[in-house]
Amino acid sequence: MNGNELNWQDIRLFLAVAEHGSFSGAARELKLGQPTLSRRMAELEEQLGQKLFSRVSQGCELTELGAKLLPAAEQMAVWSTEALTQAQSPDRIEGRVRVTAPPGVAFAMLPQAAVDLKKEYPDIRLEVLSGIGTMNLARGEADVSLRTQVPEDKDLICLASFFRPLKVFVSPTLAASLDDTVSLQDLDWICWPDNYDYLQGNYFLKRDIPNFKPAFTTDDYNVQLAACCAGLGALVLPEGFEKSTSVTGLVPLQIDMSQYAPAELHIVVHKRQRYIQRVMKVTDALKAYFQSTSP
What we know:
Largest sheet: 5 strands, mixed
Strand content: 15-25%
Number of helices: 10
Radius of gyration: 25 Å
CATH class of the largest domain: Alpha Beta
CATH architecture of the largest domain: 3-Layer(aba) Sandwich
Helix content: 40-55%
Number of strands: 12
CATH superfamily of the largest domain: Periplasmic binding protein-like II
Order of helices and strands: HHHEEHEHHEEEEHEHEHEEEH
Strand order of the largest sheet: 4-3-5-12-6
């Protein structure tokens, strides 16, 4: 690679071409002549010593190097926008913050945390991405991640960790039909399908209950919750879920779950995002909410 620094304006042009998949489309958006754009990209490629795009019949595609450069370029765009916002409106905190979280946390906890955040920072737009998979913060797939495990990547920062004991929840009607001696083996269970056996609930139920056969399985947390509320069976959840305004009609059974590790929740950000003001305010609000609802 020739030269020690990349020109931000060239990176901005690179992003436009990558987004449009063509030099002509990017040139129109940028109000720049296509020959000028092509020349600037050729100069950037010469500086890097490799091609960023390969020509195809309908435009262009990122090369391997282009694909590797894209996440960092996108983060440069984020920081550029952030710097401009802070310079123009230093006292105003606004913009979108994407939070990824497991389905149960997203459903039962994040709506109330969002209410608290909105009261103080109405111009922050919270976007919740709910799923079992882990999104890549380095690639900019989300700004904040609520995870059930501490990340091993040295570029990811764990800002806070919370631990909640596990409880067995059922509907009030089902609870009334059970006596005080009920055990895990006596219950009909609602859980995740077999391909989610790595999740904590599935793992220990299958490990500790001989010939375990669930009464109901689904890959949708909302459906699990609805089935439990309908009295179809029992559901393992962290203590405190029943206090959420989003969850109604569930009661915990007096089954000793102390032998099982508590549910973990970690607030994680990439080091590049840590000091962006709107991200900081969101993580502060999340920490305050989880602290206030901890058992």
